[in-house]
Q: What sequence folds into this?
């Protein structure tokens, strides 16, 4: 499934797998001045390739290597020989061997599928990506993943955040995420004078500073409550119920891979893979 929406010079592509149920998870790619930011999921790759058929494409930048952000990399690189793909240095082994380096749980295979291998080039914190008309700053923003980056275009005030910021108030987290790193990364980008925020899913934000500040405050307050209850000797499960509320549908769908418990454990430094 594919939806296309323009935001001035930026074209947004929302992609999802067609499923025989109403529930689905959308992910997003953006095209700006010939640069594709992320490439969606493998299940929707044919539709994205069709949509991009008449668009000039000079490079792909992956904000991170989760399968819903690199899904069309291999197809696009095969279709357009010489197409360069950039990502954080830690991402390159995953791009080259997604199946071997990034095992998937069943829900991930159903919603997004296996990306094909692609060859990437390293893009580290502080470097820039240049298109014909713009220069984008690379910002290392770990937490959601160790290889996560954001892109910032200061003259336009564009901020591409991948999955660092998607809005809402988290009550659950996936195994392996580091909530304190997420908070630190959010604080960094909140200091940028961004005028438009392009997330890896959810709606585009105009003048996002207040939303970023509110998100940081919420996550820090949640963490403070978790740490205080843990200091008082509460059990993990009791903290989960007190701080995160009742069971969530995502916990069932992911078979325990994305849960309230993982969020609490991350605050306590115990949410490893």
A:
């Amino acid at each position: 499934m594919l939806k296309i929406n323009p935001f001035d010079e930026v074209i947004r592509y929302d992609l999802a797998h067609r499923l025989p149920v109403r529930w689905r998870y959308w992910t997003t790619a953006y095209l700006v001045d010939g640069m594709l930011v992320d490439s969606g999921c493998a299940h929707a790759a044919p539709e994205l390739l069709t949509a991009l058929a008449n668009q000039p494409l000079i490079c792909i930048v992956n904000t991170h290597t989760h399968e819903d952000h690199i899904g069309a990399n291999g197809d696009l690189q095969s279709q357009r020989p010489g197409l360069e793909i950039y990502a954080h240095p830690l991402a390159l082994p995953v791009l080259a061997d997604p199946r071997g380096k990034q095992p998937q749980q069943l829900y991930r295979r159903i919603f997004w599928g296996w990306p094909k291998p692609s060859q990437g080039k390293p893009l580290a914190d502080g470097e820039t990506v240049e298109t014909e008309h713009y220069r984008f700053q690379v910002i290392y923003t770990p937490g959601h993943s160790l290889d996560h980056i954001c892109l910032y275009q200061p003259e336009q005030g564009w901020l591409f955040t991948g999955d660092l910021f998607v809005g809402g108030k988290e009550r659950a987290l996936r195994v392996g995420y580091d909530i304190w790193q997420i908070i630190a990364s959010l604080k960094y980008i909140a200091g940028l004078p961004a005028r438009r925020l392009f997330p890896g899913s959810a709606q585009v934000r105009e003048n996002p500073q207040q939303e970023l500040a509110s998100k940081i405050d919420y996550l820090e307050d949640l963490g403070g409550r978790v740490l205080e209850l843990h200091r008082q000797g509460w059990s993990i499960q009791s903290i989960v119920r007190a701080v995160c509320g009742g069971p969530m549908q995502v916990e069932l769908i992911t078979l325990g891979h994305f849960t309230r418990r993982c969020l609490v454990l991350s605050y306590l430094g115990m949410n490893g893979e």
Notes: The chain has a mean pLDDT of 95. Residues 97 and 117 are 5 Å apart (CA to CA). The chain is about 30% helix and 20% strand.
